[in-house]
Amino acid sequence: MAHVTKFTMAAVGNMTNHYSREADDMKPRKNINIDRSKTHLNYNLAPERNVSQVEFIRQRIQEVKCQKRSDVKVMCDWVITAPKDLPADKEQQFFQSSYNFLQKKYGAENVVSAYVHKDETTPHLHFAFVPVTLDKKKGFAKVSAKEVLSRSALQSFHKDLQKHLEKDLGCRVNVLNEATKAGNMTVPELKKATAAAVIEKGQEAMASLAAASRKLDENMRKIDLHKHVEKSYGFFGSDVVKLQAAEYKTMTERAVAAGAWGKYYKAAEQLYEKLQGDTVQKLQKELDEEADKSYEKDKIIAELQRTNKELQEQLQTFQSALEQEPTAAEIIRAKQKEIVQEKEYTRIMAYKPYSEFVTSATDIFYAEMQKQLKKGVSVENIDYKKVAAAMLSEHGPATVLDTLRKHGKMSMQEASKTLSAARSMSRGISRGISRGLGLEI
């Protein structure tokens, strides 16, 4: 069985700590029962990297288009649970095969981690990945959990996974069950389906007990009849009395057993009623909690919208006042510019390549800017022609143009102009070198 969850950037830290069992994950979590004596049995199927899981996510979303909103889902997590009837010697192969299926489906370059947890109630795999897809209209890669995990994709997921696993393992693998036959369910939907299944099984058991109870009632009526015959006609022939006495003894033994079964039936009936009541109450409580959370979330959004509107009004008033004080306005604009440049400086200097080899266009872009900043060039005076020329030495014009637009925040016109100047610069350098060597161009 499998289910998927999406996470914003604010939530990935806690989740990645949980995957790798970092120190921050020592505190107890709701619905999680971790046996620390088995934690050493956990393992990661994904390649080990020289950066943390969170840093990998940050780097990956910088490489593709990702909207700068706090509610953007930058990581998804498929939890694949080993079926209860899976042979023990097939478990490791089951998780490896599941990983291969997921890696191929979502791209090896997007895999954050793939930890198998053996220290919880049931062995399971956490396959975490950045949801990257191709924008078919514009032709570039982007982060979009909504498109990657579309309804149609989720509906076919379990069937595709089961087909892959059975082909790979060579045996029946029960990924599909009553809760997943109709496609991937949300947690509330899954809880409803589970509760309904429990109640249905209880009803079947009660129907069987009711049939047994009716049979016992019939036997009890026969016993009462024999008691009556013996008391009324016991003074007749001894053969008749002995026969009825033998039957009476047999039926008395049955009566004792019937009494025991009657008590059992009564206890089972009470247990079923309690189970049904507890299940319904628990489900209702959980649904009420979900509704409360949704209500609270709506309240918070409404409050934020109101606050934002007030701030916009205050800003307009402030700007109107500034227009009447040109000197003050100039000072504030200069300060704002300084703050923006400081943030940009920090962003540029914080960039680190994936490896010690600076090869990608993005790596070269940031390396050249860092080089200029270390020489004392201010952020606003960075020579992007040199940056583009450095990239052209390793990559084609289309890649350079795309990198300038994405990481240099340039318009198409600005990026094209910078690229043209960089190509002229590169040709000029080549001519100078050739003349110095006495070569004709």
Automatic annotation (TrEMBL):
The entry's keywords: Coiled coil, Plasmid
Coiled coil: 297-324
An individual GO BP term: DNA recombination
Protein name stated in the entry: Plasmid recombination enzyme
Organism per entry: uncultured prokaryote
GO molecular function list: DNA binding
Lineage: unclassified sequences, environmental samples
Pfam hit, one: Mob_Pre
